[in-house]
Amino acid sequence: MNFSILTTDTSLFAHIQQGTQQEFLLLGSLPALSQLSGGVVLIDLALPSLPALSDASWLVYTTSNQVLFLSSTPSDEEHLAALTAGARGYCHAYATGESLQAILNVIAAGGVWAGPAILQALIRSMHKLFVPKDTQAWMGPLTDREREVATLAASGSANKEIARELGITERTVKFHLSLIFEKLSVNDRLQLTLLSKGIR
Predict the structure, then answer these.
(1) Domain end residue (candidates: 69, 89, 113)
(2) Domain count of the chain?
(3) What is the greatest pairwise CA distance in the chain?
(4) Contact 142, 150 (CB under 8 A)
(5) Which of 113, 131, 164 finishes a domain?
(6) What is the pLDDT of residues 93-103, one digit of tens each?
C-alpha cells in the first residue's frame, strides 16, 4: 500500500512519519494528488488553497484514493462534511502515532474510520430510519438485563447514558455489551444496530 500526505507543514509531515513508522510521499499541491491512484492519502485541511469540503470536486480525489483528512481544529461538523466528501476518515492532525496507525490500518483495509460522536449520530439516524420486523427475535439468547442494555445501545445511547438509565455503572454496561456482542456474533454497536433493524 502506498502512503502519501498533502501538506506544506514539515513538522506535521515529520510527526506522521515518526508516529506511524510509515514512509510517506510528500505532496505539495492538490494537482499532484490527481496523479495518484489506489493509495492512502492524508490531506492537511490547513492548506489555504483547498476547496471547501462541500465542493463536489473532492469526489475526483476521494474515489481514486483512500483519503484521510487531517484537521488542526477538528469538529463533528467538519468530520461529517469530510465523510460526505468521500473521505475514508478524519482526525486531528497531531493525533498520537498509535491512533494514526490504527486509523490507517482501518482505511488501508478498505474500511471507514469515524470518531465516537459521528458513530453515535449515525446509529441514532439509523434507529429512526429502520423499524425491525420482530422487535424481540434479534435478541435471541440474551438475559433480561442484556436485552435492556442491547436495546439502549442499538438506539444510539452511550455507555454513560445506559448506565444512568438502568442505575448501573459504566463498567457493568461494558461487561454486558461484551457478552451481548459475543452471544449475537457482532463486533460493535453498528453491527448490533444493523442486527436490531433486521439488516444483518
Answers:
(1) 113
(2) 2
(3) 57
(4) yes
(5) 113
(6) 999 999 999 99
Q: For residue range 33-72, list pLDDT tens digits in order.
A: 777 777 899 999 999 889 999 988 888 888 888 999 999 9
* Structural domain range at position 13: 3-113
Residue pLDDT, tens place only, 10-44: 999 999 999 998 899 888 888 877 777 778 999 99
**pLDDT (tens digit per residue) in 91-129:** 999 999 999 999 999 898 888 888 777 777 776 666 555
